[in-house]
Write a structure and sequence with these properties.
Order of helices and strands: HEHEHEEHEEEHEEEHEEHHEHE
CATH superfamily: Acetylglutamate kinase-like
Radius of gyration: 19 Å
CATH architecture: 3-Layer(aba) Sandwich
Number of domains: 1
Number of helices: 9
Mean pLDDT: 87
Strand order of the largest sheet: 5-8-2-1-11-13-14-12
Number of strands: 14
CATH topology: Carbamate kinase
Structural class: alpha/beta
Helix content: 40-55%
CATH class: Alpha Beta
Shape: globular
Strand content: 15-25%
Largest sheet: 8 strands, mixed
Length: 291
């Protein structure tokens, strides 16, 4: 609807319809996982940061967890190093983990912090190493310095939330010997959201959500219980790259997150549609019976 048709009264009506949802999430912790292909388009990135800044301004305690796989791959190409993946995980030798740390904890993290502040938010960038937020061990020697999370310390994050900042956390970690690890962003988001007992975890990806028929975009499953998700795993409905994502959703629910949503981060303002409208966006994963 164009500005000439969308009257001030209609704008006011839209805001009043959002009021119950603003009340619902005011003062609550919402963890947003942002990364991968959802980060590539600069216009969409600006809109995502606008959504997060708006949520912060209306009193939602937003924690932004980010990856940056495409940026890592691009930097490795510039340095003449080939990216190798096994089962969707980047093989990470010592040289690669240095690149991962440089890109995620440096360039990507500070770019997102800067964008949030340009949109009116107050943000502080952290890595999983800072304050020992993410402690890890080696997941598989064949993968190199890819980490398996052993502990989450939430204090640095909660301290920032109490001071009314948006924590922006990059998914690198360390162990007690000082080794650095690359951590899967979805896994890190699920563990951090669980440790924070978040009201909601939003997983931004590059598809609409879980589809009953992966070849039919109109077959979106809007609500999915943990039990139903396991049934769909067994039947092969959830397959391929969606398996680890839904696994992380189930893990987050089991760790205490109230519900998790997988949505398409390329859709303009999908976060606001999910949190501040009745219909929502994407697929919501919940524990127990369908609400």
């Amino acid at each position: 609807m164009s500005d000439t048709v969308f009257s001030n009264a209609q704008r006011a009506e839209v805001l009043t319809q959002a009021l119950p949802y603003i009340k619902k999430y005011w003062g609550k912790i919402v963890v947003i996982k942002y990364g991968g292909n959802a980060m590539i388009n600069e216009e969409r990135k600006q809109q995502v940061m606008e959504d997060i800044a708006l949520l912060w301004l209306i009193g939602v305690k937003v924690v932004l967890i980010h990856g940056g796989g495409p940026e890592i791959s691009q930097t490795m190409r510039k340095l003449g190093k080939e990216s190798v993946f096994v089962n969707g995980l980047r093989v990470t030798d010592r040289e690669t983990v240095d690149i991962v740390q440089m890109v995620l904890a440096g360039k990507v993290n500070k770019t997102l912090v800067n964008l949030l502040q340009m949109k009116g938010g107050h943000a502080v960038g952290l890595s999983g190493i800072d304050g020992g937020i993410i402690e890890a061990t080696m997941k598989d020697p064949a993968l190199g310095y890819v980490g398996k999370i052993t502990r989450i310390r939430t204090r640095p994050i909660t301290d920032l939330l109490e001071k009314n900042y948006i924590p922006v956390v990059s998914t690198v970690a360390s162990d007690r010997q000082g080794n650095t690890y690359n951590i899967n962003g979805d896994t890190a988001a699920a563990c951090i959201a669980g440790a924070l007992q978040a009201e909601r975890l939003i997983m931004m990806t590059d598809i609409d959500g879980v589809l009953a028929d992966r070849d039919d975009p109109t077959s979106l499953i809007r609500e999915l219980t943990v039990e139903r998700a396991r049934e769909l795993f067994d039947r092969g409905v959830i397959s391929g790259g969606m398996i680890p994502k839904v696994d992380c959703c189930v893990d987050a629910i089991e760790k205490g997150v109230k519900n998790v949503v997988i949505l398409d981060g390329r859709v303009p303002h999908s976060i606001l549609m999910e949190l501040l409208t009745e219909q929502g966006a994407g697929t919501m994963v919940v524990g127990g019976e369908k609400p």
